[in-house]
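Hi Y.,

Following your request, here is the sequence exactly as I used it, all 151 residues.
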Amino acid sequence: MSDSEILVRHARSSDSADIKALLDRSWRTHWAPHLDMGAWARYEAARPVEAYVDVYLGAMMVAERGGVVVGMYHLDDGMLHAIHVDSWAIGTGVGTVMMKEAERAGARRLDVRAFNARARAFYASRGWVEIDEHEDTEMGTPVRSIIMERL
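Below is the corresponding structure, written out as tokens. Let me know if you'd prefer a different format.
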């Protein structure tokens, strides 16, 4: 599929449910397998994607293909707070198109979970460099995060 089939645009209020569902699938696919069952239970109880989207929807961008939301990112003052491709759309060019847009819009820094080797390799292939790491938590479970910058 070509990049021209992917439209990156500002999120609209009508995208809220689609973004929440996308982020939920992303968490379950990419992060949950690396966490203990307590983190899963805390995630189910807290439903953090709900509040995140409700608060930051106006700052989010979405990638759309054929009228379907297939990705999202949240950029604030050079910090790429989130970038997610729907699990079924990985490898179809959505991430590349969103990263090009985020970089063009000023993305210079991001945090990525150390266990997310696929994302780390993707960012590195685009010229992002791992500059530091720190202890973090994901739903109460200790994890390591890697700070990357685009130099």
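Residues 3-106 form a domain with the Aminopeptidase fold (CATH 3.40.630.30).

Thanks again,
Q.
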